[in-house]
């Protein structure tokens, strides 16, 4: 019986094993005479230390994985994550070099299993002119003028509708409500879909399944998060494909009621194929929804009804820093890279642990304390090279200003209409994306006048 179960398990895991073996970490052969990587541990065959890396931990911390390995090997060490030999850095200077040395030393390096979900034309996998082209599309679409002229009214309308519904509820799940708000805004911005209708709600359910499997173990059999994520990707792309077809027909007919969204913008300003368009929009859907929903939820959690700290952009920065929504970024060394006594060999994946920078007591005083006043500058928001929530260099998040706009509008309506308190204790957990185990339920108190 035991032998039979082993055979069944190996059969189910075969696609996963093949996926790991095909990843760069196992296909890369060391050059003769190549320098050695920093010290570390490769863990188990195939899966390496991925399970330990993905282990849940409180969001305002770097987690046991980093704590234990930094203590043993130092701020730069080698591991095996997602089937790739990976140099992990918790060093602020090295992390800054990783972000700023695009192409000269580092290229795209996200796990191949993740890129299979995002698509081969996703912006995070692109380099050089391809990346510049995709990024310029989003940057121009989200220009300052368009944010004020096109997006502000829509963001205001969605936030007013979401928050207006709270008056009748008394108790709400912040996780549910902020996701609904952020998805309503981004679905309208990308595909012209109206918030709070059946089609949009269905797409959001697919998106939730899609995002849950992004950083899961790539187990290629039914029922796993990774398998479900691939299925959800296909369903989302079917919606984008249908919308694209309808939009092309309307534009060909000379219709003037074409939506001013990213889909139309892409059709008018590029020669992208259906696949390229789908991957671009899917990636923007992920980036434009996830950060917004989580930073609002974190701010509500940290403030817990206290209006004293409500200078919005200070709260925004501090929630991003302490919540560690952007836990790390990954690159690939395109050549041997020397940093102090360390050499990152060509072909190795490189992980810049941004959370380690944000939680470094030498950079941020009392880093585990929520302190928006640390961002108070002489004439506005204090800037810091150690704040890396939106990445840096040529891969600085192109949607950062839209996220700030959504946060500012939502919080304006929130604090002018309500005070709130937690219904029960809840805490942000990184698993590996930030979430609230209990859904962050709050009791609402409507303000008079």
UniProtKB/TrEMBL annotation:
UniProt superkingdom: Eukaryota
One GO location term (cellular component): membrane
Binding, heme: 397
InterPro entries hit by this protein: Cyt_P450 (IPR001128), Cyt_P450_CS (IPR017972), Cyt_P450_E_grp-I (IPR002401), Cyt_P450_sf (IPR036396)
Annotated compartments: Membrane
Keyword S-adenosyl-L-methionine in record: no
Entry membrane topology: Single-pass membrane protein
Keywords for the protein's UniProt record, in alphabetical order: Heme, Iron, Lipid biosynthesis, Lipid metabolism, Membrane, Metal-binding, Monooxygenase, Oxidoreductase, Signal, Steroid biosynthesis, Transmembrane, Transmembrane helix
Signal peptide from the UniProt entry: 1-27
Example GO BP: brassinosteroid homeostasis
Keyword Lyase: no
GO terms of molecular function: heme binding; iron ion binding; monooxygenase activity; oxidoreductase activity, acting on paired donors, with incorporation or reduction of molecular oxygen
Cofactor(s) essential for the protein: heme
Similarity-based family: Belongs to the cytochrome P450 family.
Protein name: Cytochrome P450
Gene source species: Colocasia esculenta
